[in-house]
Design a protein that fits this description.
The protein is mostly beta strands. Helices cover about 0% and strands about 45% of the residues.
Length: about 130
Amino acid sequence: QVQLVESGGGLVQAGGSLKLSCAGSGRTFSSYAMGWFRQAPGKESEFVTSINWSGAETYYADSVKGRFTISRDNAENTVDLQMNSLKPEDTAVYYCAATNSGYYSSRSYKYKGIYDYWGQGTQVTVSS
């Protein structure tokens, strides 16, 4: 099992930047693929980005491509999400998630159902 704790959320003006971090527990953290999802008020949860166990493969939603960057440090058991050029529509609760179920692939990375563990979420608010 792995426990996930997000941090780094807050209030920022449009055009600004924030860095979210997800700290994972457990000795097998490096074996997990990690993802970030977000949920805005009144909307369904949506995929933001993901990274495979080694960090060699990353995927991004079209809405954040070129603005957000995911990275991981397996020695520190952390996954970071650097968010630049933030827009009001990026306002949401951001959740990190982990999976080592074997279902993570270039076709499945965006589906919530393959992720086994979730953090409690961190609020990001972008003012216009």
